[in-house]
Specification:
Elements (H helix, E strand, L loop, with lengths): L2 H14 L3 E3 L3 H10 L8 E3 L3 H10 L3 E5 L6 E2 L10 E4 L9 H4 L4 E4 L11 H12 L4
Parallel strand pairs: 1-2, 3-5, 3-6, 4-6
Helix pairs in contact: 1-2, 1-5
Length: about 140
């Protein structure tokens, strides 16, 4: 993920009162350092093993929602605001959410496309879903 994408997601998380969870890869730290334009400390959690972290969040009662094209995905306009702790999972712009993470989702949301593109930029898609989950859209 490009530093600008992480910076955009970090600003959106700040805007809706959410935190950003990222794997502890060096490129993530570098991208956050370049892309973070917030004037105050940001809420960023480093998660060692993303799959284990997702499973633990789910066991603890969090609702895990993936932004993914799937047969049972709900349209963004029909996604209700989060009523409990919710984790939004974003995948790679080209390959989506890895199959092993799909099994950890409680549901999926898709963003309808009218144009010729198959998907939005990951930061744009994540921002739209975060605003919807926060009840601000």
């Amino acid at each position: 993920m490009h530093g600008a994408n992480l910076g955009t997601l970090l600003r959106t998380c700040d805007a809706v009162g959410a935190c950003l969870a990222v794997p502890p890869f060096r490129w993530v730290d570098e991208a956050l350092a370049r892309g973070n334009t917030l004037r105050q400390p940001a809420c960023v959690h480093r998660v060692g093993d993303p799959l284990r972290w997702l499973a633990e969040e789910r066991r603890a009662g969090a609702n895990v929602i993936g932004v993914e094209l799937a047969d049972e995905a709900v349209r963004l306009a029909d996604l209700p605001a989060a009523r409990r702790r919710t984790v939004m999972v974003l995948g790679h712009e080209a390959t989506g959410i890895p199959p092993e993470a799909l099994d950890l989702l409680d549901g999926a949301v898709e963003i309808p496309m009218v144009g010729t593109g198959m998907s939005l930029n990951v930061a744009v898609a994540g921002s739209l879903v975060l605003y919807r989950l926060a009840g601000l859209l």
